[in-house]
Write a structure and sequence with these properties.
Domain HDOD: 204-389
Protein name: EAL and modified HD-GYP domain-containing signal transduction protein
Helix content: 40-55%
Structural class: alpha/beta
Domain EAL: 1-213
Oligomer: single chain
CATH topology of the largest domain: Hypothetical protein af1432
Number of strands: 9
Organism: Catenuloplanes niger
CATH superfamily of the largest domain: Hypothetical protein af1432
Number of helices: 16
InterPro entries: dGMP_Pdiesterase_EAL/HD-GYP (IPR014408), EAL_dom (IPR001633), EAL_sf (IPR035919), HDOD (IPR013976), RNase_Y/CdgJ (IPR052340)
């Protein structure tokens, strides 16, 4: 018998510092890593780029990964020409055009459109005469490989680059003191390499979104049916959490915090949700077990059912219940998970300190679940808890069943 798949997975991203000439970290290059032990990237394709984007913006959070520093992200042809959209704005990111990308007319036009939209461009592993000089007028950074490049041509390359005063040169793959001395000699503004710092692999525990739910989300978005979009998202706890995180990431540009999944969807808008769905479709997430998914959804629905009678917002109660249920799956406390999400004060207070009407709802659900009816909040007295629980279980089972492929 095959083991049942887990609802949880470990996600990873590599992060290598980029320094200025004084040794100050000014940026990080974000790298695909398939495991915590991986020293080098196993892939540099569209899948790798999509995984870096997803993990950075919806699992770790851009602030946790880079703080207020720039992030360099490798970009493949699919993203450059708009075949796969970028679901984040130009703030705090530099898009690296890989040396393997053929700089044909379509690519040049795509890069120009990205620059027009406010994105900064870096040319990775630049080799003069390879055709990438067509992109020099559009670039803000140029990366020179100090390990494998022809040193005898550095004078020529540096002279050409200095014709574009907006370009900063990044001396990459610095592995010896001689490499650092060479970067100093040519006045290269930025430096990166093992002689300064090796990549660090960051790891987090994540939920694995259902691939089918993501596919169901696309037609709902296409129909511009906001209610259907929201119901599809809340049917998958992992997807709902990613939407919550995305709503307050630097990419989304949110100016305030949210208290429900519905509010997060409205805040992002159908265009942003469509872009995230397309990125997620490139992933290969592990399916959740029916039992794990049903349990997490049951808790959320149970909280929602009790909310109105306990003077709490049903939407906010669903979200608080969802987060606390997911925290249990991840072996985290609700407070630990709440700290990673853009939550309104009442939702955060309920999860972290158990305060307010939402805190009463969560305590009541906890008490009922362990059979301790004496600890049920007074506001829930008179509520048919058994009926609310059974209704929640039926709803959750229907939602999980709806994500299954027909035989």
């Amino acid at each position: 018998m095959n083991p049942m798949p887990s609802i949880t997975q470990r996600v990873h991203v590599g992060r290598q510092p980029i320094f200025d000439s004084r040794g100050t970290v000014v940026a990080y290059e974000l790298l695909f890593r398939g495991s915590m032990e991986a020293v080098h990237a196993a892939a540099r394709d569209a899948y790798a780029t999509s995984q870096v984007i997803l993990n950075v913006f919806t699992e770790f959070g851009i602030a946790e990964v880079a703080g207020d520093r720039l992030c360099f992200i490798n970009l493949t042809r699919e993203f450059i020409i708009g075949k796969v959209p970028l679901p984040f704005g130009p703030e705090n990111v530099v898009l690296e055009i890989l040396e393997t990308v053929d700089p044909d007319d379509e690519v040049v036009a795509g890069v120009a459109a990205l620059v027009e939209a406010g994105y900064k461009i870096a040319l990775d592993d630049y080799v003069h005469g390879s055709g990438h000089e067509r992109l020099l007028p559009l670039a803000s950074y140029l990366k020179l490989d100090m390990l494998d490049s022809d040193v005898d041509r550095f004078d020529e390359v540096a002279a050409v680059c200095r014709e574009y005063p907006g370009i900063q040169i990044v001396a990459e793959r610095l592995e010896t003191a001689d490499h650092i001395a060479l970067a100093d000699r040519y006045g290269f503004e930025l430096r990166q390499g093992y002689a300064l710092s090796r990549p660090r692999v960051m790891t987090a525990t994540s939920l694995s979104p259902s691939r089918l739910v993501r596919l169901q989300l696309v037609p709902a978005i296409g129909a511009a049916d906001m209610d259907r979009v929201i119901s599809t998202i809340v049917s998958d706890p992992a997807l709902a959490l990613r939407v919550l995180r995305a709503s307050n990431s630097a990419a989304a540009g949110a100016a305030y915090k949210v208290s429900s999944v519905r509010q997060a969807v409205v805040l992002l808008g159908l265009t942003q949700i469509r872009q995230w769905a397309m990125i997620m479709a490139l992933g290969d997430a592990v399916e959740a077990t029916d039992e794990q998914l049903t349990t997490a959804l049951l808790r959320a629905r149970f909280c929602e059912s009790l909310a109105e009678g306990m003077h709490a917002s049903p939407d906010a109660a669903f979200t608080a219940g969802l987060i606390s249920g997911v925290a249990e799956v991840l072996s985290l406390t609700p407070a630990m998970l709440a700290d990673r999400l853009p939550l309104a004060d009442d939702v955060a207070g309920a999860l972290i300190d158990g305060t307010g009407a939402l805190g009463d709802v969560l305590r009541t659900v906890d008490a009922f679940s362990r059979g301790d009816l004496e600890s049920v909040a007074p506001a829930a007295h008179g509520t048919d808890l058994v009926r609310a629980y059974v209704d929640g279980w039926r709803w959750s089972a229907r939602m999980v069943a709806a994500t299954k492929v027909p035989a």
